[in-house]
Amino acid sequence: MTTRPALEQPSRLASVRYDLRGRILQSVERLEAAGEPVIKLNIGNPAPFDFPVPDWLVEAAERAAKDSGGYSESQGLLDARWAVSRRYHEIGVDIKPADIFLGNGVSELIMMSVQAMIGLGDEVLLPAPDYPLWTAAVRLSGGVPVHYVCRDDNEFIPTVDDIEAAITPRTKALVLINPNNPTGALYDAATLKSLLELADRHHLVVLADEIYDEILFDDAEFTSVSQLGEGLRYICYGGLSKVWRAAGYRAGWMVLSDALAAETAFMEGLHLLANLRLCPNVIAQRAIEAAVNQGRGGADDLVQPGGRLRVQRDVLVEALNQIDGVECVLPKGALYAFPSVDLDKFTFSGDEDLSVSLLEEEHLLVTHGTGFNLSHSPHLRFVFLAQQEILEESVSRLARHLERHRL
Fold this sequence. Notes:
It contains 15 helices and 14 strands. By secondary structure, the protein is an alpha/beta fold. The strands form 4 sheets. Strands 2-8-7-6-5-3-4 form a 7-stranded mixed β-sheet. Helix 7 (189-201) links the parallel strand 5 and strand 6 (205-209). Helix 13 (308-320) runs parallel beside helix 15 (388-404). It is globular, with a radius of gyration of 21 Å. The model has no long low-confidence stretch (mean pLDDT 93).
């Protein structure tokens, strides 16, 4: 029998990472197979924590299933795109259905838009920490991710000076994640305005990940890039995964500004990529139409005082800040707390070492900060979707683990 050569991993994957669902899950599977339950606070997936899809949205999807056996337009159903258009009209922005693309989740749309825009050696500015799909999308498209640091002492809000210092003649786009994953930071209108002015000066396309736009705390107000970006080239991304707790539906949209939609070569590439995937899931597109037509406020009962997400956020952050060597900025939006850990007080070589040992010894799964392309300081990301008692137990395990390894 002829010995087959081993299949080697393509070089373009060598620097791509997605630690949220990475090799550490093999350790989780091993522990669970041995009968050891693991608390999993690593993924922003509402369903396992008893956050169901709203009944009316389930019913809309069920009704849609009867008439969703065929392909739709590759860009997405016109009725669903009209619904997204009206959603932006409600906040004072005129987005035409022709400039809206629907997708199998925002993740697919990020990959499509980056592939249509970024060529070999082109640079893209990304926050550090970032949602790692963004860095991966740039690398897989042949581009170069360049990270600008968002610091704890500025509540993870980036500064214009830091971003401008990273711009080179090869820089093509600026990514903003607002509200931010993994930090929970929220950029106010003044900050956004200054960042958009910077992008305009340097002719950058702004890619605004706004998937958490209605998950806000403490009377915080969200401003979309689309509200401030008249005349600029931008894309805003949104979907059903978080606000409507329908992550499994894989239903997302992206809206393009008039200025970007006028870029002929880019649009030709984007339509080509849309055609190659045939179309988004048609049932999910009908769900988009139903959810957007329902109006805003999909998470209101969860984020107001006394709401489940608000309470769980407060409990988690307060408990984390009581641990010597841990500091956590209060998140203003999204589903995550991102505490820093002073490793000078402990025996760990880095935050990945800390997260691995925390899993092995305390059976608690969280994600280390380096998994979000953050290299300047050690952090952990906690998802606060779990019930209050689970979050309290999780912090107790972290505190016990840190005390065990304290210098």
